[in-house]
């Protein structure tokens, strides 16, 4: 089987009926970027910039952030990289970063002072990171996305910080990225309710199914007793996602999935059935997911998914699994 996936490396992820699906990888460290070429991915769809902060004993300086981003872009070559701004706080606490008010113990860190919330309060961090990203991507396209956007104004505020840094560099006649593409992560359910307001502002949307599932089901993503309890293939998740995909597609905004859900064969198949055409997944999943895509008749699946969402069977997973089997997947 390994040899079979290796043979897929140089083949594009195209469904049997001709839809090109973008399959990128999730990464976080310098050497991860090489995975793109090893597994034959279309780029890095989620670069978790907080990894550098988590493995450092002290706050990484702007220069060292810039060096990392540049080297990642270099190893990606002409493949795109989507940098996610710092997603620290919560369970990814940095010992050297404290709120300063002596109130760092959180009852619910996943729902706490983390990610974009922290970045907007401590905007010095985001400013330095934005500058490092702009400098690293000088002369090429910069793709940047913000984690845990809960309301559209947070996206505006974060984008404004990046734009200010860009203007600062422009005033000094520095080489800028050829284009900046701004995205938001949808992982807080509330954002779905104001998506119509956000969509005109963004260049792309990336659904983080790890956090989204945790918040939709109110179930800690790391709790062992809950790990098997709620299924990614439940009608609740699938209907929720279907609505987002429909809205984003109608607005002409590319929408992808970057959570672990997309790295599992049956789940990824269901996502394609909802209209998802962009994935960012763990590198080891690229082979199996490409194999699934290349054997999938997407046009046959779309109406099946629609019908299953309208009248969900009691065993959605079993039903989808049987469909996959009957259809040579
Ligand atoms: C997610 O929440 O689905 C996601 C991709 O981000 P992380 O796993 O880094 O929280
Ligand atoms: Mg997340």
TrEMBL record:
It is found in: Cytoplasm. Transmembrane segments: none annotated. Belongs to the PEP-utilizing enzyme family. This is phosphoenolpyruvate--protein phosphotransferase. The gene is ptsP. The chain holds residues 427 to 755 of 758 of the full protein.
């Amino acid at each position: 089987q390994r040899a079979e996936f290796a043979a897929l490396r140089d083949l594009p992820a195209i469904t049997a009926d001709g839809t090109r699906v973008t399959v990128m990888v999730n990464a976080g460290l310098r050497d991860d970027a090489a995975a793109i070429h090893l597994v034959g991915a279309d780029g890095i769809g989620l670069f978790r910039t907080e990894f550098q902060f988590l493995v450092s004993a002290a706050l990484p300086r702007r220069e060292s952030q810039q060096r990392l981003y540049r080297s990642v872009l270099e190893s990606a070559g002409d493949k795109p990289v989507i940098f996610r701004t710092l997603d620290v706080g919560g369970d990814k606490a940095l010992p050297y970063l404290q709120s300063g008010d002596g109130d760092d113990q959180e009852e619910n860190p996943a729902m706490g002072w983390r990610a974009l919330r922290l970045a907007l309060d401590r905007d010095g961090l985001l400013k330095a990171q934005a500058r490092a990203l702009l400098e690293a991507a000088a002369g090429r396209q910069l793709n940047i996305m913000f984690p845990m956007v809960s309301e559209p104004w947070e996206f505006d505020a974060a984008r404004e910080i990046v734009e200010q840094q860009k203007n600062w560099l422009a005033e000094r006649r520095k080489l800028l990225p050829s284009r900046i593409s701004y995205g938001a992560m949808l992982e807080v359910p509330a954002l779905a309710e104001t998506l119509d307001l956000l969509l005109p502002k963004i260049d792309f949307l990336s659904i983080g199914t790890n956090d989204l599932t945790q918040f939709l089901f109110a179930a800690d993503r790391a709790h062992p007793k809950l790990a098997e309890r709620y299924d990614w293939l439940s009608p609740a998740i699938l209907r929720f996602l279907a609505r987002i995909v429909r809205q984003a597609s109608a607005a002409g905004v590319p929408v992808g999935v970057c959570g672990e859900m997309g790295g599992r064969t049956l789940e990824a198949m269901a996502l394609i059935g909802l209209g998802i055409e962009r994935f960012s997944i763990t590198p080891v999943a690229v082979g199996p997911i490409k194999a699934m895509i290349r054997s999938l008749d997407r046009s046959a699946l779309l109406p099946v998914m629609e019908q299953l969402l309208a009248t969900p069977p009691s065993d959605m997973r079993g039903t989808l699994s049987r469909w996959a089997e009957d259809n040579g997947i």
